[in-house]
Design a protein that fits this description.
The complex is a heterodimer of chains A (about 120) and B (about 130). Chain A contains no helices and 9 strands. Chain A has about 120 residues and is an all-beta fold. Chain A has one domain (about 1-90): Sandwich (Immunoglobulin-like), CATH 2.60.40.10. The termini of chain A are far apart. The relative contact order of chain A is 0.26. The radius of gyration of chain B is 35 Å and the shape is elongated. Chain B has helices at about 5-30, 35-75, 90-105, and strands spanning about 115-120, 125. In chain B, helix 1 packs antiparallel against helix 2. Chain B has about 130 residues and is mostly helical. The chains are: A mainly beta (about 120), B mainly alpha (about 130). The interface between A and B is medium-sized, with 45 and 22 residues. Strand 2 of chain A pairs antiparallel with strand 1 (about 115-120) of chain B.
């Protein structure tokens, strides 16, 4: 799990694509999606779509899903990758940091009742 | 006829060869006058050096001639053109059949496709700074 806070603006990432034998591969039509756009939103992508960043929106947990077409021919063979969870917690700048006291109008003492007969 | 690939070098070497050739002849004439032994040794040593220089210049000039001849042969062979080779219909038909068989054999194979995509996160970028994808 990747831990970030709301004080962070974005989280860069890189995409690795491999064949079954572990050698590097390429895919067509790479598409990224955030599992929860209220937490993470897809940001800037590099021209080759093999890296980019996600924008950090608010507290929560989300992950990035990526799909691509592994068939470079006329067919389509979609493969999917899922990132680790990204946990966004409240950053120090959003936490309470000071106490302030504000006094109201003073309350006068109640006069003592006169002594009895 | 191919163009001399190094005309300036050839001209320079021919000029040097003329100078050295004259020195070789002069040294030979001097030695032929039967000078004293010490002078003969000096003249002989100088003649050996100039003869060596003359031989090396001559060798480079010969190699340049051979290179030119090789370039001529290459040009006569049609360089740089590579013309298609025409064959009889029968041979051409057999060739196409062979190629078809090879293509059919190769077609049963498929390039290994990508099977895994992995997203790896880097360090978060604090607010106020710019991310570099």
């Amino acid at each position: 799990m990747a831990d970030v806070t709301t004080d962070d603006a974005s989280l860069p990432f890189t995409l690795g694509v491999t064949k079954p034998d572990g050698s590097p591969a390429t895919v067509d039509n790479i598409v990224y999606a955030s599992s929860d756009e209220t937490v993470l939103r897809m940001g800037v992508l590099a021209a080759n779509n093999l890296s980019g960043s996600v924008d950090i929106v608010a507290e929560g947990t989300a992950r990035v899903t990526v799909t691509g077409d592994a068939d470079h021919g006329s067919g389509v063979h979609t493969i999917t990758g899922v990132s680790e969870d990204v946990h966004v917690s409240t950053g120090p700048s959003s936490m309470a940091s000071t106490f302030s006291f504000t006094f109201g109008t003073p309350v006068p003492k109640v006069p003592a009742p006169p002594p009895g007969p | 006829m191919a163009t001399d690939p190094a005309p300036a070098l050839r001209a320079e070497l021919l000029a040097a060869q003329t100078v050295v050739g004259s020195q070789v002849r002069g040294l030979s004439y001097l030695i032929a006058t039967d000078p004293p032994v010490d002078l003969t040794a000096v003249l002989t040593s100088a003649l050996d050096g100039r003869n060596r220089r003359y031989f090396l210049i001559h060798k480079v000039l010969t190699d340049l001639d051979l290179l030119l001849a090789d370039l001529d042969a290459l040009e006569v062979d049609g360089y740089p053109t590579l013309d298609p080779i025409q064959v009889a219909d029968t041979a051409f038909g057999e060739l196409k059949t062979e190629v078809g068989d090879i293509e059919a054999g190769a077609a049963i194979f498929q390039e290994m496709m990508a099977s895994m995509m992995e997203v790896t996160f880097g360090q978060p970028v604090p607010k106020g700074k710019t991310a570099s994808p």
